[in-house]
């Protein structure tokens, strides 16, 4: 019997590519998104269904899980992928924008996980794959809140794995470096302000990131392949770094330690 994956945020980027990839590999795919009525590329088949799911709406999460079980009989893997980035000076972010960043990247992921667990517990199996980031292991300037959400996902996943393993369920983390998706465009919320104290760091970072294609070396398919490996392996490995940038950054921080790593990043951005 074909296995089933439920993906959040399948309308674009990593989520969409993963939906295509798993379908090609013969899996049943529940490609969930906020507006399935707008989806043009993913076509429904007997093995691929589009369901509405907004990670901020518990009712929609429950309905999408039920609809997936009705369509495919069960769910084997949950891919918590929906998320976006907030960048800019920490002081410039409104309480509402900080809340929203955490609602989507953290509390939404908690809620989807919580809603799927009764099904996984009942069948005594299931795998939760959380899309974190290299930004959940190392940090860069002007991404305070985004890093905070991904570090939160890391800690949550590590701890959760302990309580779920005895029930036949496990948790894995995917940690991509820069990936060529809508993330740096549509999905990036730059907060703005005009305190002169921050002009220097803002200008330097802005100039450094402008048109920096090298900052996004991986393609969504590279991530989809690693997600497939994480979904199908019998290994207990928990963390999967994706991309040469992610592997290099995490290794450098490990070797150099936090202080020297920060020194290196400052030197890179001439801060
Ligand atoms: N691209 C990178 O460089 C990179 C690197 C490391 C980690 N990541 C992580 O990878 C994940 C996917 O990002 P991506 O790069 O594929 O960017 P993307 O193409 O912009 O995709 C983001 C997805 O999240 C969805 N989403 C946003 N808010 C949502 C909500 N409330 N409920 C359900 N879905 C929601 C978006 O749906 P709509 O179409 O409805 O807006 C979209 O499908 C994110 O968690 C991101 O943090 C990305």
TrEMBL record:
Record carries keyword Oxidoreductase: yes
Keyword Translocase carried by entry: no
Pfam families: adh_short (PF00106)
Keywords: Oxidoreductase
UniProt GO MF annotations: oxidoreductase activity
PANTHER family in the cross-refs: SHORT CHAIN DEHYDROGENASE, SHORT-CHAIN DEHYDROGENASE_REDUCTASE FAMILY PROTEIN
Similarity comment: Belongs to the short-chain dehydrogenases/reductases (SDR) family.
Protein name according to UniProt: SDR family oxidoreductase
